[in-house]
Amino acid sequence: MAPRKTQAPEQPVAPAGELRDGFKFRSGRLCLDLPASLSARLKAEPKDLLETPHDLGRWLVAAGLATKDPKPTDEELRHTRELREALYQLAVARLRNEGLDSKARALVNRWAAEPPPAPQLGPEGLTWTRGGVHSLLAAVARDGVELLGGPLAERIRNCEGEGCALLFVDTSRSGQRRWCSMSGCGNKAKVEEFRRRQRGEGG
User: Fold this and answer.
1) C-alpha–C-alpha distance, residues 92 and 95, integer Å
2) CA 113, 118, 122 angle in degrees (round to 5)?
3) Torsions phi, psi of 23, nearest 5?
4) Phi, psi (degrees; rounded to nearest 5) at 38
């Protein structure tokens, strides 16, 4: 009889859809979805979608980490932005096969060491205790440690869409996924390629 495989603990189930309350969730991992909250990162004037503590509360709900706005503070917003940039820096380093910045790594490890939300057995099944925003950020940081320190780190990709800075985990069988989203950047690229061909035929 083959030994049973151990399974990772269940995580809160995130709402469905790539676009939720104005935020993009296209990476397949929370630790890469958080960096996506800095929109147009590669452009001269990026837009921070986490401009206020209320925005952070909206993101936490959209990410499936909270059922209602946990009312983050200004300090927690600042901590979130720091964690976001550390995760992005480390993911890009993995993507480029570069060394991991020690300060970014220490920051992510510090958050990963915080107590995460705990699973509880409620009257209707699985529920999660909330230790506040700190515990929710710990869950994101732990996801980052598992991804960046595991075999899937080799599957981190940068979307090939023009001007798109979104990172994602390529879980396709071929390992040749090019776009953060086929309905987003992938569709735009197909439309542009079709137009180029039409212009060539017209000439």
Assistant:
1) 5
2) 180
3) -110, 150
4) -100, 95
Terminal C-alpha separation, the chain: 67
For tokens 């890469």, the residue is 32
Which residue in this structure is represented by tokens 């320190």?
149
Taking 50 as the pLDDT cut, the residues of the chain under it are: 3-11, 202-203
The predicted model scores a pTM of: 0.82
User: Judging by DSSP bridges, how do beta strands 23-24 and 38-39 pair with one another?
Assistant: unpaired
Please tell me the distance from the alpha carbon of residue 14 to that of residue 126, in angstroms, as a whole number: 14
Q: What is the DSSP string of 41-61?
A: TTSSS-EES--SHHHHHHHHH
**Tokens standing for 134?**
């700190």
Beta-carbon-side half-sphere exposure of residue 84 (alpha carbons within 13 Å): 20
How many other C-beta atoms can be found within 10 angstroms of the C-beta atom of residue 52? 12
> What pLDDT does 183 receive?
62
Q: How far apart are CA 71 and CA 132, in angstroms?
A: 9
Q: Is 23 helix (H, G, I), strand (E, B) or coil?
A: strand
Q: What is the pLDDT of residue 72?
A: 97
Q: Quick check: helix, strand or coil at residue 188?
A: helix
